[in-house]
Specification:
- The chain is built from 12 helices and 10 strands.
- The strands form 3 sheets. Strands 4, 5, 8, 9 and 10 form a 5-stranded antiparallel β-sheet that branches. A 3-stranded mixed β-sheet has the order 1-3-2, covered by helices on one side.
Amino acid sequence: MSRTAGLLKRSLPAAATTVGALMLLTGCGAAAVNQAAPGAAAKTDCGTVNVALNAWVGYTADAAVYNYVATNKLGCTVVEKNLNEQISWQGFASGQVDVIIENWGHDDLAKQYITDQKVAVDAGPTGNVGHIGWYVPPWMAAKYPDITDGKNLNKYADLFKTSESGGKGQVLDGDPAFVTNDEALVKNLDLNYKVVFSGSEAALIQSFRTAEANKTPLLGYFYDPQWFLSEVPLVKVELPAWTPGCDADPEKVACDYPQYKLNKIISKKLADSGSPAAKLATAFTWTNEDQNSVAKDIQGGMKPDAAAKKWVDAHGSVVDGWLK
């Protein structure tokens, strides 16, 4: 999910192995064009729609379903662009991006591109509720029950030392572009830890998988919706509770992450065009469970388009509702 409210600074998939699946779509700047094979003619010509692909599997799942429906039900030509979160927003001003299908907060970017520049608009909620936090593998929560209280983290700092953490405990983050407040949290909560970036969602997942399998210590950034939580039920570490405004200054954050009501952002140009792709973006909503089911198929080796078709075929009434 970048999630840079000072955080999720959070990325992904489609191949035969987990890592391969999560890396296929991460090449920034690459583009794939899906020519329309309309299943039903749209009343208004859809034209070309430029959809940003951000680097985490949940986003890939959202985009796969949106793109499949736009292509096969509305006759759109979808151009997919692999970009990180911040670069995606810049595309609204340059005309290179029409749709961000899953946004995690980014109040600063919303102000810049929606309020000030007026080149983008909020297309409403995806229906997904996002959570970011610090987690440990289940074996650690069972062996050290009080480790899930953030007040006890310094007590366990030595357990989390690594060659990269400079004599301190390690907090493992994912892609530096994800939304993250972790460096501020370490500083402002006086924790004897250092944030180390694994570099990707795939690397973060593999680290947690290995830590649980080998019973090795790991404290790391993670989030929901995420299919991996059904494989390894990570246990959240409770930090000081989020309250309105506690994260207003990214440098002074000393509270946990909020709940994120994920939403869609589309270009003002698309919103004003009358294209059915704009209406679809606004109407597109589903649940965390829906997203995780498609994401799990993708990470298991199914191509995003095939995973999307599987979900669409099983949820015809939902899709019909989007197209009304």
